[in-house]
From TrEMBL:
Cofactor entry: [4Fe-4S] cluster
Record keywords: 4Fe-4S, Chaperone, Cytoplasm, Heme, Iron, Iron-sulfur, Metal-binding, Oxidoreductase, S-adenosyl-L-methionine
Primary location group: cytoplasm
Protein name per UniProt: Heme chaperone HemW
């Protein structure tokens, strides 16, 4: 079982961000953390203890987890520690402007062994354009501090496909990232979503498939292998076990306002608004996930990553299409699993097989 904990507070709202996060609710932080503990205890009782399971990975995301003081997490870790697998991967997201040396050190002492920095770029003009609140220097310092403190895994998020991005400008970002002690890189193509400042401003995004291929090749040539459409790791050990769990369609607890959980073929959604969540953190909407939907998700996620797809998942008609794609050098089979050679074509390949 995986555990996701959502922190919906942010110092500032990035212009592309569609996540459930707020910049004007800081006075509710302490109450929110108390509500979060209520849901966490409830979910552990009902889905971990009752079913005799263990928590394999923990991911504290947001929003910005580093906007919450480290001491507020102490009880969270007291609650989960008895239920963690040995050497469980525990990740926190962090923004360079709020992840001080002291905060990082305190979180590491609590048990966090992996940190993911929302850097997005080392270029000052691009950071301003994206609405990021930190500077290039603060990002560099935060990564160096995390390494000095002793985090086993350090991820750096970079965004590409933004207006004025070129391969040469992106190389500068990647070269700076690779000059730092990171173990993992996430390279995300900018997406324009409703409810963001960038919505209705299509000119801010570049749709350039060739740029994506060039970026992927450049990162791979720097020694970071691609194991999912947006994720690259220095070695096998450095891959995100938590994210891999999602791609393998493992069950996960979703704790916090706007989080999502998935247990026993059901998704559950706690209240999205912070005030509503604080009032009753145990209210959630539920959605049954059909076996057909589960199959589709396994295929889509499997082709987006090195996880691949079980051969037995395909029926006879679908397998004929799979065989055609293997013959056309689009897919390959190994140990009764089907793997995709080109992650950028994953959706098209999955939809063609399932049509």
């Amino acid at each position: 079982m995986l555990l996701y904990i959502h922190i919906p507070f942010c110092d500032s709202k990035c212009f592309y961000c569609a996540f459930n996060s707020y910049t004007d609710r800081f006075h509710l932080k302490h109450e929110y953390m108390n509500a979060l503990k209520i849901q966490l205890r409830n979910d552990i009782e009902n889905y971990i203890i009752k079913d005799n399971k263990k928590i394999e990975t923990v991911f504290i995301g947001g929003g910005t987890p580093s906007t919450i003081k480290a001491f507020e997490y102490e009880e969270i870790f007291e609650i989960i520690k008895p239920h963690l697998e040995k050497d469980a991967e525990i990740t926190t997201e962090a923004n360079p402007n709020s992840a001080s040396y002291e905060w990082l050190e305190s979180m590491n002492k609590l048990g966090v062994n992996r940190v993911s920095f929302g850097v997005q770029s080392f270029d000052t003009a691009k950071l301003k354009f994206l609405g990021r609140a930190h500077s290039s220097n603060s990002a560099i310092t935060a990564i160096q501090n995390a390494n000095e403190i002793g985090f086993k895994g350090i991820n750096c998020d970079i965004i590409y496909g933004v207006q004025n991005d070129t391969l040469e400008s992106m190389k500068k970002d990647f070269d700076m990232a690779f000059s730092l002690p990171i173990t993992h890189l996430s390279a995300y193509s900018l997406t324009i979503e409703e409810g963001t400042k960038f919505f209705d401003r299509s000119s801010v995004k570049i749709d350039d498939e060739e740029l994506s291929y060039e970026i992927f090749d450049y990162i791979n040539n720097k020694g970071f292998h691609q194991y999912e459409i947006s994720n690259f790791a220095k070695n096998k050990v450095s891959e995100s076990k938590h994210n891999y769990g999602y791609w393998q369609h493992k069950e996960y607890l979703g704790v916090g306002a706007g989080a999502v959980g998935y247990v026993k073929n059901q998704r559950y959604y706690p209240s999205k608004g912070i005030e509503e969540y604080i009032k009753n953190p145990l209210i959630n909407e539920r959605e049954d996930i059909s076996l057909d939907d589960i199959k589709t998700e396994k295929i889509l996620l499997g082709f987006r990553s090195l996880n691949g797809v079980e051969k037995s998942l395909f029926d006879e008609k679908e397998m004929k299409k799979v065989d055609d794609l293997i013959e056309g050098d689009k897919l390959y089979m190994e140990n009764e699993r089907i793997f995709n050679k080109n992650f950028l074509l994953s959706d098209e390949i999955a939809l063609y097989i399932l049509d």
